C-alpha cells in the first residue's frame, strides 16, 4: 500500500488524516470532495518500470502501491482492469485520423468501467468492517457495485431512478442486490442513498463523493501508459457524468508522469450529452455549476447535479484540454460506427466521445496526425433499446434460397439508385 499522507478538500483546501473522515470535508459537507495524496518519494522506490514488468497480476491490483488500501488479502478473484486497447485503422480512416486507440472497458466483469471503482470500494468497506454497502446510480455503477460486492459477500442496497435501463436492473437482481427504485431523478436517488447510509451505517459506494473509489478509476490512466509502452496518447477522450471518471483518469496519467515513468501528459477531453451538460456549461462560462434536469439517451451520464465537477474541470484545465457536447442522434450514430468499424459494442455513454471527434477536428483542438485514445466505458448489451435505434435494416425472407436471392438483388438495386 502507498502511504497516504493526507486527504485534501478541493473546495476549501482543508487537510485531513485518513482516520479523520471517510468521505467528504467536515467543513464543506457533501460538496467538499476530497483528494487522496500519497508519499510519492516512498512510492518512487516501489513503482518502477522494471518492477511492473515483473508482475504477473494483470489487473488493477498490479498498482497496489498506488492504491489507498492496506488489506490486499481481501481482494477478490474477478479480474478487474487490464482491459484491451486496440489501434483501429478502419476507424481512424473513417475520421481521417492517423491513429485512434479504443480501450474497451466493457470487458470488465460487469461490463463497465465502474468495476474499477467498485473493486476498491468493496475492499475498503471490508477493511472498515462493514458488511453492507450502498450507492445510487443510473445503472452501471449500481450493477458494478452489486456484482463485485456479491463476489466478496457484502450485502448491497442500490438506489436507481425509474428510467434506468432494464438490462442494468436485471444485473442488480441477479447479483442479489436489494434494489430501491426511486420515483425521481438520479440526483434524488443519490441524496436518498447518502441519507440511508447515514441512517443505517452502511458503507457508501458512491464514487462521486467517496475519494477511495476514484482511486480505482485512476487505474485506467496507469494502464493506458503501461500498455502503450510508457508513451501516453496526445489526447484522451472520456464521457462525463458526475465528473469522477475523467478526474480519476487524469490523476493516473499525472501520477506516472510525476513519478518519472512517462515523459508527457495527454490533453483531456470531456464529452457531455447536449441534454445533460452542466459541467460543459460551467467550463465554457467559467461560472459556478448550475443544476439542471437531464434529458438524454445516454443514461450513464444523465446527471443534473454532478458532485465531482470541480475535479473534472481541474483535470481538463490542467491538461490544456477542452469539453464538447454531442446530440443524442450523434451518440446513436456512434454506436453503429464503432460496431461496424471496430467490432466493439458500446452503450450510449460509452461511445459519446467518438461523436465529439469531428467537432474537435473542426475546432482545431487536435491534429489529424496525433494519437487519440477513446475509452469505451460500457458494453452495448447494457442498453439494447438504444442500440436498436442504431441498427441496420433487417431482411425478412421465406425459407428458400430463391427468396434470399431476390431480396439481396432488391437491396443491391436500391443501394445503386
From TrEMBL:
This is Threonine synthase. Its cofactor is pyridoxal 5'-phosphate. It catalyses: O-phospho-L-homoserine + H2O = L-threonine + phosphate. Gene3D superfamilies: 3.40.50.1100. Residues 78-378 form the Tryptophan synthase beta chain-like PALP domain. Pfam families: PALP. GO terms for biological process: isoleucine biosynthetic process; L-serine catabolic process; L-threonine catabolic process; threonine biosynthetic process. Keywords: Amino-acid biosynthesis, Lyase, Pyridoxal phosphate, Threonine biosynthesis. It comes from the Bacteria. GO terms for molecular function: L-serine ammonia-lyase activity; threonine deaminase activity; threonine synthase activity. The keyword Manganese does not apply. It comes from Candidatus Hakubella thermalkaliphila. The keyword Lipid biosynthesis does not apply. Pathway: Amino-acid biosynthesis; L-threonine biosynthesis; L-threonine from L-aspartate: step 5/5. PANTHER family: L-THREONINE DEHYDRATASE CATABOLIC TDCB, THREONINE DEHYDRATASE, MITOCHONDRIAL-RELATED. Pyridoxal 5'-phosphate binds at residues 140, 377. The modification N6-(pyridoxal phosphate)lysine is found at residue 114. Catalyzes the gamma-elimination of phosphate from L-phosphohomoserine and the beta-addition of water to produce L-threonine. Belongs to the threonine synthase family. Its EC number is 4.2.3.1. It is an enzyme of class 4 (lyase).
Amino acid at each position: 500500500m502507498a502511504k497516504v499522507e493526507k486527504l485534501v478538500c478541493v473546495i476549501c483546501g482543508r487537510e485531513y488524516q485518513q482516520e479523520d473522515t471517510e468521505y467528504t470535508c467536515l467543513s464543506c459537507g457533501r460538496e467538499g470532495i476530497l483528494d487522496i495524496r500519497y508519499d510519492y518519494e516512498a512510492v518512487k522506490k516501489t513503482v518502477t518500470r522494471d518492477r511492473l514488468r515483473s508482475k504477473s497480476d494483470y489487473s488493477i491490483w498490479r498498482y497496489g502501491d498506488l492504491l489507498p488500501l492496506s488489506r490486499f488479502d481481501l481482494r477478490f478473484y474477478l479480474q478487474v482492469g487490464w482491459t484491451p486497447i486496440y489501434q483501429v485503422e478502419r476507424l481512424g480512416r473513417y475520421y481521417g485520423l492517423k491513429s485512434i486507440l479504443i480501450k474497451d472497458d466493457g470487458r470488465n466483469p460487469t461490463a463497465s468501467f465502474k468495476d474499477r471503482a467498485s473493486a476498491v470500494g468493496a475492499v475498503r468497506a471490508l477493511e472498515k468492517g462493514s458488511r453492507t454497502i450502498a450507492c445510487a446510480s443510473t445503472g452501471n455503477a449500481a450493477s458494478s457495485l452489486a456484482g463485485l460486492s456479491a463476489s466478496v459477500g457484502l450485502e448491497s442496497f442500490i438506489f436507481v431512478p425509474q428510467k434506468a435501463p432494464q438490462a442494468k436492473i436485471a444485473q442488480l437482481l441477479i447479483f442479489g442486490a436489494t434494489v430501491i427504485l426511486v420515483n425521481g431523478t438520479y440526483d434524488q436517488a443519490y441524496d436518498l442513498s447518502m441519507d440511508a447510509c447515514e441512517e443505517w451505517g452502511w458503507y457508501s459506494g458512491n464514487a462521486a463523493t467517496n475519494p477511495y473509489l476514484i482511486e480505482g478509476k485512476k487505474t485506467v490512466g496507469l494502464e493506458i501508459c503501461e500498455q502503450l509502452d510508457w508513451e501516453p496518447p496526445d489526447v484522451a477522450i472520456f464521457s462525463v457524468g458526475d465528473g469522477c471518471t475523467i478526474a480519476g483518469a487524469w490523476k493516473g496519467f499525472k501520477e506516472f508522469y510525476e513519478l518519472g515513468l512517462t515523459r508527457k501528459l495527454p490533453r483531456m477531453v470531456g464529452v457531455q450529452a447536449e441534454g445533460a451538460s452542466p459541467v460543459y456549461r460551467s467550463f465554457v462560462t467559467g461560472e459556478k455549476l448550475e443544476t439542471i434536469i437531464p434529458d438524454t439517451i445516454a443514461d450513464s451520464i444523465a446527471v443534473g447535479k454532478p458532485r465531482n465537477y470541480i475535479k473534472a474541470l481541474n483535470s481538463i484545465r490542467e491538461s490544456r484540454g477542452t469539453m464538447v457536447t454531442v446530440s443524442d442522434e450523434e451518440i446513436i450514430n456512434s454506436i453503429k460506427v464503432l460496431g461496424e468499424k471496430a467490432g466493439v459494442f458500446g452503450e450510449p455513454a460509452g461511445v459519446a466521445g467518438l461523436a465529439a471527434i469531428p467537432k474537435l477536428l473542426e475546432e482545431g483542438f487536435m491534429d489529424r496526425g496525433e494519437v487519440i485514445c477513446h475509452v469505451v466505458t460500457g458494453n452495448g448489451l447494457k442498453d439494447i433499446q438504444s442500440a436498436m435505434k442504431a441498427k441496420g435494416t433487417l431482411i425478412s425472407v421465406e425459407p428458400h434460397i430463391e427468396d434470399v436471392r431476390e431480396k439481396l438483388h432488391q437491396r443491391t438495386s436500391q443501394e445503386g439508385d
